[in-house]
Amino acid sequence: MALAHKGLDFVERPYPFTAIPEIEEGFSKTVPILRDGDRLVRDSFEIAVYLDETYPDRPTLFGGEGGRVLSRFVESFSQMVLHMPVTKMAIMHIHDMLDTPDQEYFRASRLDRLGKEIEAVAAEGDAERETFAARLEPVRRTLHFQPFLGGDSPLFADYILFGALQWMRVTAGPPPLAADDSVMQWFERCLDLHDGLGRRVTAA
């Protein structure tokens, strides 16, 4: 979404979990990784900062320093408030989408990270589904004043939050939000951005 926002051409190359250590000679333990000519950048936020600094003549992702530091808050909100509930709702779906070597990696790495088997994590998913909408109340109140977190048009803060809900959409199905929920309406607007880029990824 950030690359499309900047109007930059790019080639996307998906990899399985077990192939990540082979990308760019082990440059990063996680994806995404951006190669721009001879430059390599890891981490979604750092990639966005790089794009804004390297291509200042193209549409801004942050709208200035204030937008950049406030986007860190949105990142923290997404990671601390949304990621674990989405994980609980999606974890078995993700496992079942993987080939056998990646299923084995996924089980072991999530046990190490979460301290319990993925079935035990998934068992908490129904409860998270019931309370998920309430977690988004700060976003809902913000969208009462404007169509995007960035104001009249999206900024990287929108793409951060959109990424969490899109992650759920493509692994476990649509976020558990009513059609008339302002957050769901915002999510639909984000799916339509950049000629429907978000909708090109098949939903679960």
What is the total tally of β strands?
Answer: 2
Overall geometry: globular
Give the CATH topology of the largest domain: Glutathione S-transferase Yfyf (Class Pi), Chain A, domain 2
Question: What pattern of helices and strands is seen along the backbone?
Answer: HEEHHHHHHHH
Determine the fraction of residues in helical runs and give it as a percent range. Answer: 55-70%
Largest sheet: 2 strands, antiparallel
Provide the low-confidence segments as ranges: none
CATH top-level class of the largest domain: Mainly Alpha
Strand content: under 5%
Number of folding domains? 2
Termini Cα gap: 20 Å
Give an overview of the whole structure.
This protein has 204 residues and is mainly α. It folds into two domains: 53 residues, no CATH class; 136 residues, Up-down Bundle (Glutathione S-transferase Yfyf (Class Pi), Chain A, domain 2), CATH 1.20.1050.10. It is built from nine helices and two strands. It has a two-stranded antiparallel ribbon with strand order 1-2. Helix 3 runs antiparallel to helix 6 and helix 3 runs parallel beside helix 8. The mean pLDDT is 97.
Compile the SSE list and pairings.
Layout: H1 2-5, E1 33-36, E2 39-42, H2 44-54, H3 65-97, H4 100-114, H5 118-122, H6 125-135, H7 137-142, H8 156-171, H9 182-196
Helix pairs in contact: 3-6, 3-8
Produce a short descriptive summary:
The protein has helices spanning 2-5, 44-54, 65-97, 100-114, 118-122, 125-135, 137-142, 156-171, 182-196, and strands spanning 33-36, 39-42. By secondary structure, the chain is mainly alpha-helical. A hairpin with a 2-residue loop joins strand 1 and strand 2 (39-42).
